[in-house]
Hints:
Layout: H1 13-21, E1 27-33, E2 40-46, E3 52-56, H2 64-79, E4 96-98, E5 101-107, H3 119-136, H4 153-160, H5 167-191, E6 196-198, E7 207-209, E8 213-215, E9 222-224, H6 238-252, H7 266-283, H8 289-293, H9 300-317
Antiparallel strand pairs: 1-2, 2-3, 3-5, 4-5, 6-9, 7-8
Helix pairs in contact: 3-6, 4-5, 4-7, 5-7, 5-9, 7-9
Binding site for Mg(2+): 206, 217
Protein name: Stress response kinase A
Keywords: ATP-binding, Cytoplasm, Kinase, Magnesium, Metal-binding, Nucleotide-binding, Phosphoprotein, Serine/threonine-protein kinase, Stress response, Transferase
Amino acid sequence: MADEATPYSDLGPDTVLDAVAATGREPDGRLLPLNSFENRVYRVGLEEGTPVIAKFYRPGRWSNAAIDEEHAFSAELAAADVPVVPPLDDGDGPLREYAGYRFALFPLRGGRPPELEDPAVLERIGFFLGRLHAIGASDHFDHRPTLAGDFGATTVETLAASGRLPDYLHEAWTSVARELVGRIRERWEAVSPATLRLHGDAHPGNLLWAEGPHIVDLDDTLTGPAVADLWLFLGGEREEQQQRLAALLRGYRAFRDLDPGELALIEALRGLRILRHAGWIAARWADPAFPVAFPWFEGPRFWEDQVLALREQLANLDEPPLELPREELLPL
């Protein structure tokens, strides 16, 4: 199989089709790559029935036990009527292997991005995330990561030593990034949030909307505070964020309350996402798909913008957090 730096170089169209055929399904030759960088995901047409989605896991990222927990959580959620899209299981488990690549098949689900300007849509999203979290709180992971306040520390030190930072920005970026990581850690310790099993990357792109939502891509499922699955649906200025939060929580509280203290983690989570996105691109740069998709990463403008964004996050941490809407303070 291909080496760790270029893990998908041997995953050509024939290998993808042969892998699907090895599950007892007969591909019809139609193969459409879908937008995924961490893994490789394809829509595969079949001679009989609707197409399937074939997801090939990045070699070396997750253990089999971690992937099994992702799949088991998906199945548990689906059994509780949470509209996730679990992998197909023909009786011997959904995780399969072919030509050295681990993969899973998923049913095809269509949809469009959710209309977050519509409070009714946000309320339904909150309803299903509340149900997801109610199930998530009922058990625990043994092999998945835990989102904590020091989540970005290794990323910062790895980037600082990577040689990718322009010389004239190295000190400025490293200084502000380390300060931000320290502030995030302090905020996390102050809030000391309860944790549960989460989607892990809940954002509008991972919700396909038809008559209602299809929640997809639990590849990043982990343990963490509930607000980590909510904050990416809160866009715009503070007033708009408050309005969206109110709509989300109208649905969410059908299943559970949100600890108001967790709202103080939103800007910390935003800072972590900025840092870890840069670290992710750097870690995957040898993968040929990444320089094509992120050509600006090696330019000085990106790192100049990074310094500004990290400084802005430091300032945001000094602002008062969002508040629970008044109606959300009422007892159930």
